[in-house]
From TrEMBL, chain A:
<keyword id="KW-0472">Membrane</keyword>
<dbReference type="InterPro" id="IPR035906">
    <property type="entry name" value="MetI-like_sf"/>
</dbReference>
<comment type="similarity">
    <text>Belongs to the binding-protein-dependent transport system permease family.</text>
</comment>
<keyword id="KW-1003">Cell membrane</keyword>
<feature type="domain" description="ABC transmembrane type-1">
    <location>
        <begin position="94"/>
        <end position="295"/>
    </location>
</feature>
<feature type="transmembrane region" description="Helical">
    <location>
        <begin position="9"/>
        <end position="30"/>
    </location>
</feature>
<dbReference type="GO" id="GO:0055085">
    <property type="term" value="P:transmembrane transport"/>
</dbReference>
<dbReference type="InterPro" id="IPR045621">
    <property type="entry name" value="BPD_transp_1_N"/>
</dbReference>
<dbReference type="Pfam" id="PF19300">
    <property type="entry name" value="BPD_transp_1_N"/>
</dbReference>
Automatic annotation (TrEMBL), chain B:
<keyword id="KW-0547">Nucleotide-binding</keyword>
<dbReference type="Pfam" id="PF08352">
    <property type="entry name" value="oligo_HPY"/>
</dbReference>
<dbReference type="InterPro" id="IPR003593">
    <property type="entry name" value="AAA+_ATPase"/>
</dbReference>
<keyword id="KW-0472">Membrane</keyword>
<dbReference type="GO" id="GO:0005886">
    <property type="term" value="C:plasma membrane"/>
</dbReference>
<dbReference type="GO" id="GO:0005524">
    <property type="term" value="F:ATP binding"/>
</dbReference>
<dbReference type="InterPro" id="IPR027417">
    <property type="entry name" value="P-loop_NTPase"/>
</dbReference>
<feature type="domain" description="ABC transporter">
    <location>
        <begin position="277"/>
        <end position="524"/>
    </location>
</feature>
<dbReference type="InterPro" id="IPR017871">
    <property type="entry name" value="ABC_transporter-like_CS"/>
</dbReference>
Length: 305, 542
């Protein structure tokens, strides 16, 4: 197992390299630069700035410098927030983003599996229809629609929760709900389908034929089998939580790294955008590895060696 | 029937809710099982034999409904609440199933699964249960129980998994063991082992066994009494010996005679060679270890075959012997090493374009009549699809005319050509698959277990059909099967395969009458055992 993890982590290096390369050149393709203002700067100042940030060197040279710094864990200085390096910004923003993301994931898993399993056990009853209906709804409505509606309803009109900002647990409720809703929907549907299939499987029939009580038949034999597709979905779920957080953090004004992604892209803050790309990619790679390890632990038929 | 009754069914019915209303699958079955006796419930698929037992065990599908009465030692089981039913099933009445591969939970170790019913019904400590599981594994003949108890199901073979199921069934010393086609999914040599094991265990433990089966060989060997079921009803019952010697119901007689008979005469030895493969090998990579050599699975390893016009070569072997892979390699459907000749031209390296015109002469019929026909095409479309590729200029009406001719030839009503495959039975679907091959006027047909998924009586019809078609069109067959009775009726030359290699080959008569290889002898002994028993019983009755 340790050899497998090591192999996977080594395999992540070329993946990261490709991602960094593509992202580096793509953002440079966009017109404009970090120091373009409405009133152009004095050419001399501009020259100094460009020299300071290595912009006067050819692009491939800048790319090599970036790779060299990246290898040492240096994501470079932010262009738009002059006194901060990208690493400084992340040191503050990443914990915030991770808090929202992991809370949303946890809630999506808990609520989603419970709803899905309930729907499967009461197949074709009103519970089932309600869960499936809500889930379909949850998948179709994008976060950038739900977020302002929730903010307006609970924040502005009823005034129960802050409409935006960051600080207490109350600030977390709306963004976490917004982020987890679509994931709850997907997890519920996955769980429902997998549970129905598991309940019809031959080994569940065996468990029933041997007089095991329903809680054992369902809890021990059906649900564990039903968890397998849900676990496989955790990788994509982590990715979509990250992209979702870009929107949610911007709308609710949360100082996470998702917001930097948008601001960085708009302000041509090359290093900030690159830094976000690197962190998100790393996160997705590590999460997929965790999912695969978890899967092997749940399903003895899967072995990595 | 001697001894007290342990199970007694009266007027048992099973109905299923369908979009077209309730459909009755079991129509009032009366059945008795005495202590320690072996009762067989015989019938073809759809006769309701499995559903009868599922109803007692409360295992009907959610749209099913059971009626009538089923008494276990005076206790009514039909309509019993789940909680009280659970005190009987798994403790007093246990069951083993047809699908050893999927009947165990793949996610738990077998020791835990066998212990579950013990702990649930008897209680006691985990350590005591584990001790009991070890005894049981020993009893059912699992080698090295101490090691195997911590295996997962996928680490065991089909036969071993069925042994594990039997261990689970015996865990609580049941009164009745219901065995639902317990050996159907297993190879013949394993079948014989499992049946012998069940017979021995019954002698030792003394539980009654209810055998649900379509295999009359098993019934003859093991059952004291037989119930013959057809379309949800018991049509005949009685003690095994007399019933087999003098069946009164025409359906029983049909079942008994349903074994394919007749022999295929060898072709003219001067007949031209059609398809020949020399030193065929098919290797699958199992991956490469770090810096080491590539591990290879040799599915087919240096096999040579020569097929002459109007010849039928039977390829026999157990699952995993490489017989299907060989069939596919001979048609160049798999990358293989060695050389292949079709009608004296070397096709070992022919590319797709060169193979295409030859494809119509080299056809393939699959085992699974359910999976091999597209569910979204009408039968007419399925049958004529090959013509669209191979005779592009054919008019639509001409295609239709040929489809009608092909359907007539395989014994299907051409009026049904606008229906979809799901509206046909397994036997009819296999006829459709044959018509699809036949319409292209092939010279060689590879038949990959074409009768294995079918009932005996239907098998016999398909065998007859294939033989008639061979006569009429000078066809040459490669007939792949694990079923020796069918192979004997079809083939004039036999190749016995094991682990990808030929164990023995020769004219059919020689192989069946005087097998040389020990493996062939074992294979034949396992299959013929059943038949010998029948003759002995019949002679005794005379």
């Amino acid at each position: 197992m340790a050899a497998y993890v090591l192999r996977r982590l080594l395999g992540a290096v070329p993946t990261m390299f490709v991602i960094v390369t593509i992202a580096f050149f793509m953002i440079r393709l966009a017109p404009g630069g970090p120091f373009d203002l409405e009133r152009p700067l004095d050419p001399l100042i501009m020259q100094n700035l460009e020299r300071a940030y290595n912009f006067d060197k050819p692009l491939w040279h800048q790319y090599l410098i970036y790779l060299g710094n990246l290898a040492q864990g240096d994501l470079g200085p932010s262009f738009t927030r002059r006194d901060f390096s990208v690493v400084d910004l992340f040191r503050v923003g990443l914990p915030v983003s991770i808090t929202i993301g992991s809370l949303s994931m946890l809630i999506a898993l808990l609520v989603g599996t419970v709803l899905g399993a309930l729907a499967a056990l009461r197949q074709n009853s009103w519970v089932d229809y309600l869960v499936v209906g809500t889930a379909t709804f949850g998948i179709t409505i994008p976060t950038f629609v739900i977020a302002p509606i929730l903010s307006l309803a609970f924040g502005v009109m009823m005034g129960w929760l802050p409409a935006g900002g960051w600080g207490t647990w109350k600030h977390m409720v709306l963004p976490v709900v917004t982020l987890s809703l679509p994931q709850i929907a997907v997890v519920a549907r996955l769980t429902r389908g997998a549970t129905i299939e598991a309940l019809r499987s031959n080994h569940v029939r065996t468990a029933r034929a041997y007089g095991l009580p329903t809680r054992v038949v369902v809890g021990v034999h059906a649900l564990r089998a039903a968890m397998l597709p849900v676990v496989s979905y955790l990788g994509p779920a982590a990715a979509s939580l990250l992209t979702g957080s870009v929107v949610v953090e911007t709308i609710f004004g949360i100082p996470g790294i998702g917001r930097y992604f948008v601001q960085g892209a708009l302000g041509r803050d090359y290093t900030l955008v690159m830094g976000t790309v690197v962190v998100i990619a790393l996160f997705v790679i590590v999460f997929n590895l965790i999912v695969d390890i978890l899967y092997a632990w749940l399903d003895p038929r899967v072995r990595y060696d | 029937m001697a001894g007290e009754k342990v199970l007694s069914l009266r007027g048992l019915t099973v109905d299923f809710a369908t979009p077209d209303g309730w459909v009755q699958a079991v129509r009032g079955v009366d059945l008795d099982v005495a202590r320690g006796e072996t009762v067989a419930l015989v019938g073809e698929s759809g006769s309701g034999k499995s559903q009868t037992m599922m109803a007692i065990m409360g295992l009907l599908a959610s749209n099913g409904r059971a009626g009538g009465s089923a008494l276990y030692r005076g206790q009514e089981m039909i309509g019993l609440p789940e909680r009280r039913l659970n005190r009987i099933r798994g403790e007093k009445i246990t069951m083993i199933f047809q699908e050893p591969m999927t009947s165990l939970d793949p996610l738990y170790r077998i020791g835990r699964q066998i212990a579950e019913p013990i702990l649930h019904h008897r209680g006691g400590s985990r350590a005591a249960a584990r001790q009991r599981v070890l005894e049981l594994l020993e009893l059912v003949g699992i080698p090295q129980p101490e090691r195997r108890i911590d295996s997962y199901p996928h680490e065991l073979s089909g036969g071993q998994r069925q042994r594990v199921m039997i261990a689970m069934a015996l865990a609580n010393d049941p009164d009745i063991l219901i065995a639902d086609e317990p050996t159907t999914a297993l190879d013949v040599t394993i079948q014989a082992q499992i049946l012998t094991l069940l017979a021995e265990l019954q002698e030792k433990i003394g539980m009654a066994i209810v055998f649900i089966t379509h295999d009359l060989g098993i019934v003859r060997r093991l059952a004291d009494r037989v119930y013959v079921m057809k379309t949800g009803e018991v049509v005949e019952q009685g003690e095994t010996g007399p019933l087999f010697a003098a069946p009164t119901h025409p359906y029983t007689r049909m079942l008994l005679e349903a074994e394919p008979t007749g022999r295929k005469a060898p072709p003219n030895p001067e007949a031209p060679r059609l398809l020949s493969g020399r030193d065929i090998g098919v290797h699958f990579s199992l991956g490469r270890s770090w810096g080491g050599e590539e591990a290879l699975l040799k599915a087919v390893d240096g096999v040579s075959v020569t097929l002459r016009r109007k010849q039928t070569i039977g390829i026999v072997g157990e699952s995993g012997s490489g017989k299907s892979t060989l069939g596919r390699a001979l048609l160049r459907l798999l990358p293989a090493s060695g050389s292949l000749e079709f009608k004296n031209q070397d096709i070992s390296h022919a590319d797709r374009a060169r193979m295409r015109p030859l494809r119509r002469q080299l056809q393939l019929v699959f085992q699974d009549p359910f999976g091999s026909l597209s569910p979204r095409m009408t039968v007419g479309q399925v049958i004529t699809e090959g013509l669209i590729v191979h005779e592009k200029d054919l008019s639509k009406s001409e295609r239709d005319r040929r489809a009608i001719a092909a359907m007539r030839e395989v014994g299907l009503d051409p009026a049904m050509r606008n229906r979809y495959p799901h509206e046909f039975s397994g036997g009819q679907r296999q006829r459709i698959a044959i018509a699809r091959a036949l319409i292209l006027k092939p010279e060689v047909m590879v038949l990959d277990e074409p009768t294995s998924a079918l009932d005996r009586s239907v098998q016999k019809q398909i065998v007859d059909l294939l033989r008639d078609l061979q006569e009429a069109h000078d066809l040459s067959y490669i007939f792949i099967s694990h079923d020796l009775a069918v192979v004997r009726a079809m083939a004039d030359y036999i190749i016995v395969m094991r682990h990808g290699q030929i164990v023995e080959e020769g004219p059919a008569e020689e192989i069946f009458e005087a097998p040389r290889a020990a493996y062939t002898q074992a294979l034949l002994a396992a299959a013929v055992d059943n038949r010998r028993f029948r003759t002995a019983v019949q002679e005794a009755a005379k």
